[in-house]
Amino acid sequence: MSQFQLHPRLLADTIILGELPLSLVLLARDSQYPWLILVPKRADIRETHWLNEEEQQQLMRESCALARLMETELAADKINVAALGNMVPQLHLHHVARFTSDAAWPDPIWGKHPAQAYEEPESVADEWRQRLAILTGFSAR
What we know:
One of its GO terms (molecular function) is catalytic activity. The chain has three helices and six strands; from the N terminus they run αβββαββαβ. With 141 residues, it is α+β, with helices and mostly antiparallel strands.
């Protein structure tokens, strides 16, 4: 079995914020939406059901904790959680805080508007690392 490596597209399109027990936590490089991504640190996994039962449950715990944090910290109108994998086959879960005032509301964010880079990406990443520090097992990178 090969070792876990983050897919090159995810590596290019995100900032690594840290790790939870199962997953890397990434920040998407699009300032239009608060957008975090969980990537289970398992090689060659494309689907949630490919994880063993314990890992499936851990991914759900991490996803729910992240969604709850985003909802609470940002007062989001909706948290969209999705695992598409059409462009990047590596299993990853998008967590996007949505607001009735955001650029794509009420439509999906994908392909709606070109990504807009953060002016100070490391500052935003550090803010997220501070928020994420309350999650059980989170370690910043």
